[in-house]
Amino acid sequence: MTQPVFRFAPSPNGRLHLGHAFSALENARLAARFGGRLLLRIEDIDTTRCREDLVAAMIDDLAWLGLPFEPEPLRQSLRFPLYEAAADRLRGMGLLYPCICSRKEIAAAVAAREAESGRPSPRDPDGAPLYPGTCRARDPAAVLSEAAREGLPIAWRLDMARALAAVPGPFVYERFAQGGEAEPVHADPARWGDAVIVRKEIPTSYHLAVVVDDAAQGVTHVVRGQDLEAATDLHVLLQRCLDLPTPLYLHHGLVRDEAGEKLAKSLGSKPLAELRAAGWTPADVRAALYAR
Questions:
Q1: CATH top-level class of 1-77+255-292
Q2: Number of H-type helices and E-type strands within the chain
Q3: Pairing mode, strands 172-176 and 182-186
Q4: What φ, ψ does residue 208 adopt, rounded to 5°?
Q5: Lowest CB count within 10 Å: 145, 151, 163, 231, which one?
Q6: What is the pLDDT of residues 171-202, one digit of tens each?
Q7: Whole-model pTM?
Q8: Molecular function terms in GO for this entry (predicted)?
Q9: Judging by DSSP bridges, how do beta strands 5-8 and 37-42 pair with one another?
Q10: How far is CA 150 from CA 99, 102, 203, in A?
């Protein structure tokens, strides 16, 4: 068998907290159990929010935890041409279309549709209304011409109906357990609707970059939080469209605060740096996380 490959892939848009530590430790623990490699990937495609000082701080926190990552982590910000090539391939298959709708315009279109139907709009797994298809119904050349004329940024969305027709299902991936046993899971990409595959301000999206890099790094086992489990449906579809392998997946439970909310940078969850300054040791971190 091929040696298993695991990866921990944080974004340097804030300091690491206990939730990140748990995911990193789980990757290290399972890589050791299965005799696998452990890679670090810096998911810094958002160049407006990700900073070099945060990259350095993140690497320092992980070294403090004593995690055995292989040297030279992959930096997504250096790989934009590869993501652009993948997007070009999807465009060549007729699976992407340009979209210049603003958030305000999308919200107005959704509201009008709900008022007309008298029913709430369908929503994606993150709770956002599905894109109403405004630009999908237009001539792509006309959309691109308007964008150039008005100086509008362009996103590229996946035409979900066309993608599902191009690579018909069933869409199945393997979910593995702590002991290594796996079971098939039927994915439902359609529930994401016409998802953004290339963002307006960045020549990729999380979804596209992650499937390209998992394949490029030979990742066989993806260990990440339950908050990303639904995204796997979309990732499986993109892997099929791009002829990329589908790893095995394990989505672990989330670390939550006293109020039951998951830890998050956006909520100001206490970073590892503060715990270190308060005298915590790596052993204290492990004890706190695995005593839950």
A1: alpha beta
A2: 10, 10
A3: antiparallel
A4: -70, -45
A5: 151
A6: 999 999 988 899 999 999 999 999 999 999 99
A7: 0.94
A8: ATP binding; glutamate-tRNA ligase activity
A9: parallel
A10: 14, 13, 20
